[in-house]
Every structure is written in C-alpha cells, then in structure tokens.
Specification:
single chain; mainly alpha; 5 strands; globular
Length: 753
Amino acid sequence: MKHMNSEVKEERTSNKKRIDLFLVPIVLIAAFLNLFKIWTDEYANAYYTAAVKSMLQSFHNFFYASFDPGGYVTIDKPPVVFWIQTISAKIFGFHGWSVILPQALAGIGSVLLLYVLIKRTFGVWAGRFAALAMALTPIVPAVSRTNNIDSMLVFTLLLATWMLFRAVRTVKFGWVLAAFAMIGVAFNMKMLQAYMVLPAFYVFYVVATKITWKKKIAFLTTATALMLAVSVSWAVVVDSTSADKRPYMGSSQTNSVLELAFGYNGINRLTGNTSVTGSSHKQPAQTEQQTASSETKQNSNSSADSSQSSNQRKSSFSQKMQAPGGGNQNGMFNTGNPGPFRLFQKGLSDQISWLLPFVIFSIVGLFAGVKFKGPYTAKQKESLFWLAWLLPVAVFFSIAGFFHQYYLIMLAPPIAAFAGAGAVALWSMYKQHNDWKSWLLPGGILTTAALQVYIMSPYVSSIGVAPIAGVGALGVILAIRKQRKNSLTNYLGAAAMVVLLAMPAYWAMTPIIYGGNSMLPSAGPDSSSGMGGPPSTATNSKQSGFNGMQPPGSSSGNSSSNNQMQPPSGSSNGGQMPGGSSNNGQMQPPSGSSNSGQMQMPGGSSNNSQMPNSFSSKSSSSKRKSGGMNAEVNQKLLNYLTKNNTGEKYLFATTDSTSAAPYIIKTGKPVMAMGGFSGSDPILTVSKLKAMIKKGEVKYFYLSGMGKGGQSDVITWIKENSKEIPSSKWQSTSSSAQQGPSGNGTLYEITLK
C-alpha cells in the first residue's frame, strides 16, 4: 500500500509538470466527433432553435423559455440549457451551429471530467481508457452534435460528481452543498432525469466519508434541502406568476411547471403514460393497426416499383423488428420491449451497450474479495459509486414505458468508468493470478466481442462482412491467448482494447458519415433517420436505415442521403418527437407511394411540401435543414402574410409547433402554436380566441387536419367563422399536392368587430 501511495504521489507530481500526451489525441477525437460539420445543421432541432430565436428578443421570453416571440407558450423543458444556447447565439450570432456549440463542448468536457475522476484513484491508464470509451460511446457524440439537452445534463452531473469526490477527500461541507446544488441546476435542465444519480451520491457519501453518522445525516439532509430549493426555484417563480402575465407552460395540462416536472417529464416516462390527454400507449399490435389505418393517400406520381417496394417493406415488418430470443421489438422509437435484456435488444444495444459485457466482468474483478463490513479501499468506494449510478439507470431503461434512444447517454459515464478502471484491474489480475480471476479479462474480451458481432449482424448490407468477422476472430484470438510472460503480452492487451473500441468508434462517426437527425439523434448507418435500429433491405447503404424513403415533401430519388428522414420499415413506433406526447406524430408506414413513409406530425398534419414549413431537402444544398422538423418555409405564403398583416401581433396561427417553428426561425416574428408542441395543450378556448381576434392580435390561421386534445372546438369554430384564402394566392405552384388525414392544408382569415 505504501508503494502504491508513493506511485500515486509521484504520478500527481509528474502530471503537474507536464500534459498527459496520451490524453491529447483522445480530446482531439472527442472534438472531431462532437464538432465536425455541425455548421451544416442550419436549424438543428427546430422546436428548440425557434425558442432560442424568441429568447433573444426579450428578457421576458428569455426567462420563461418562450417558444414564440409573442410569449404565447413555452417549450416543454426548463430553461437553463436554453439560456446557455441563447447566450451562445448572442455571442456568435444566431445559427444552427451556435445553438449546438454548448452541447458539443459539454460532450468534450465530459470526456475530460471522466479522465480526471478515474485517473486520480485508478491510475492514469484507467483514466485514459475511460476517457476514450466515453468519447467513442456512439450515443454521446450523436446527442452532443444537436441542441438537445442531454449532453449538457451529463456534463453537469459529472461536474457534480467531481465536487462530491472532492467533498469526500477534503471532508469539507461546502463541497457537499455545491455537489447537490449542481444536481438542482441539472433538474432545471431536464427535471427528474437529473435525480437518477442520487442513489450513487447518497451511497458514496455514506460509505466513503470518514465522519460520524450524526454529521453524515446532518450534512446530507442540508444538502438535499438545498438541492430541492434550487430545483424548484424557477418553477415556484413561474407558477406563482399570474397566468396572464407569462406564457402557458408547454406540454402541461394545468399550466404548471411542477405538474410538468413530476407528471409529463417525470413519472409518466416510467409508466409510459405520456399522452397529454391521459391515455397510455397502445400495445404494439394496436399501435401497428392504428398506424396502418391512418396512412396518408398515395402520391399521384407513385410507380409500380415503389408500390411493390412498399409492400415488401410492410411484409417484412415482423422480421425487421425482432428482439433477442425472437420477441417482437415494437417499442416506441425502436426502444424494444421492457425486460431484463432490453439494453441488449436491437435499437438500444448499438447506441450504448458495446462494452456492457466487459463492464460486467470488470465489476466482478473490482469487487472481488470485498467484505460487506469493510474496510473498503478508495478504488472499491468509487467503484461502488459508479455501480450505484449504473444499476438504477439501467433498471429504469429496462422497464420504462417511454423514452427516446438518446436518453441512454445517462449510462455512458458509468460504463466508460468501469471500462477504464476494469481494463487496468483485469489486466493486473490476468498477469498476477493463476486462479479464476485470471480468466476475467479473457472472458470479458470474448463475451464483448460476441455481443458486438451480434450488434453488427443486422448491418451486413451496410458495413460488410469483414468488420464483423474481424471483431469476432480477433476477440477469440485475444481471449484464448494465455502467455502472460511473453514479451508481446502487453501489446496484445492494448490490441484487445483497440478491437473492442474499433466498431464503437465507427458507430460514433456515423452521424458525420451518413448524416444525423437533430430531433431524434441516434448513431448507426441509419443515423439520419433518428430512429436507430437495424437497416432495411435497401441497396444503398446510406439509405439502408429507412428503405431509402424520402423526407416529407420531396420526390423519390431527389433527396440527398444525408438528409433522409425515414421510419424503419413497417415500424409501428409512434413518431413522437422530443418532448412530444404519445398520441401524436406517428410515423406512417409506406402506402405504396413514391414518397411513402411520410411522418404524420403533431396536430394531425402530414409533413409534405405544401405545408407552410415545406421540407424540400435539396441534395445540392450545403446546409442540412432537417432539424427533425420541416425547416423550410413557403416563401409565397410568407410574402402573402407579411403583405396583408395590418398590425396583428401574430403572423399567423397554426395547430402546433411543427408548422410554426421554421417561420419563427426565419423571420423572428410571432407565430402562434395554438396547442403547443404537439397541438394537444389546452391553452386556447373559443372565447379567448374571439377576444384575441377582436383585439387585432391574429387573423390568419393555417390548418391541416383536426386539432388534438382541447383544440377540436377551436378548430371547428375557426372553420365555421372564417374566409378561406384561395391557395393560388399563397401556395407555390411548384410544390406537390398537399396530403393529410383530412385533406389539403388551408389558410383562413377571420376578422371580428
């Protein structure tokens, strides 16, 4: 032990004098994966980008995180990350990359923080391996390359972890308060998701801190009270403000932040009851039937070939979405069926689980010989922390009723930590022991290689057989070699880590290679889809994820492969977008048209070229305008609305944020999303709308489909009391005919005296 302590002291002294040269390429890799080509994403996640545009215009919008410049409704998350994005946009100008930049830097910062956390106790090589594993975990750069919240959330929680570790080492109460206050800040990023690390914080502080039980209880109680105070501080201010003096709290049913936090963004995620109308998700078979029944009409340009391709995709549905063991994987957004092996199912395993078998063997090795009553070494205490982070989060994702694939970034820190610490520990056991411990490293390598072969096997058409066979063969060779004293042994150990990280590295690069989706980020050869999961039978590897289906509004073969937004073949997954409810935005399966697979968006509208936010993805464009939502505007409509605006506050009103966001981004003018993000928020009543029209606040309404939730009466009243504007005045003749559940979208005008 004395010898070990002296080595640690020497290492710390050495590190103070020079930079770890091995860390430099790791940071450069992280920077490349997180930053390269983010400037091509012009709108990012348009829902959140529109909010930043609005927040730049006034402190009122900034404080409440208003979705629209008029302060009508907020976005469905707390404001802290969007405050940071707004500051970035203020400094660098309003661009897609400027709102993505904070998350990209947070992704790099998380790599550095994990290196610091692991290196101090487990050694420099453990820190290096952990940092590299974090950088190459596919879902980490996939999320960090967008303006979604999760990358910043993880960075904040790792910063809180650093503070907690410092509190234990220094036995200073101030650092305990800082650590728990930081979790409170994280709560104001993504609400209850920030609390998923609390078991680790409590367990570690109790086990690792050398103070009396009385002080432990007092310190933790005080720190928890501070955390709760910070957590609800913004919510209390908002909820105590008169409703007529602030925007409506988006995606809530009672116009309350606390209801949003503990309901829609909290418990409902576990139960799967995220429908704002109160209904839970349908069972897979019901969802498939429901989705099939709401298919959009075939495009008049449909060909026989596309119809045949569509039928093939439909017939292969049950084959494409299989979970391990033959179970049908029909979970929302390709997140599989709840169960103990959910993280190993297709759609999740390729996002986060590449190293999970190695982590399991590492946990066994790191806790080998530990006695329940202690004493515990520093390594065992910190291993307990990462285990207490890993297990509850893994259990949540194994049983949760609703989440998106990119939420899995919460598992990245503990997995990377165990990968780094375990690599060094298992290597030491491999060389020094002759008992069962010496087989932990070979066992970890072999099982991890086997899992990676399983993960890659559905992607043969995209990546070829060679990488899959190579990982499997090298995994077997490196696992069975047991010549510990051979001069090549050290190199073989390093080679094993390279082999296990090779395919995660490739997967982490796929958002750059194939294009990403800023609204539903995921990694893999179909990363531009935002749906993850195994590819289809498409012949073009860049189209494989979604059978080559085109973005809504574009004709077959006219879109660049990097911009494609296509649902998995025959998927019954509801097309809910970030923050959206389960009863809207369902992905439509192909119906035999050349532009089949249209994504039905919130409010019942079908995203195609005739919507006001026409998504005509052009292959010649140097900017990627996906944003997960339509990110282009109908210029003729915009010209008409601007010309005929007679002082109204809102340029126009529409059912949901999907149609409104691109116009807010482009013009900076208020556009009313009457039902909030999904079109289902009970914000507007007929009497309130009448009053707004009489005040001259709004007179134009763009409607496509019936309103959802509490909007049906409002939509009916608008149609009965308005004048329809001929489409020739506002619709571009170059666009294809509009389609949707109730026909073409329509522009209405209402004036009341």
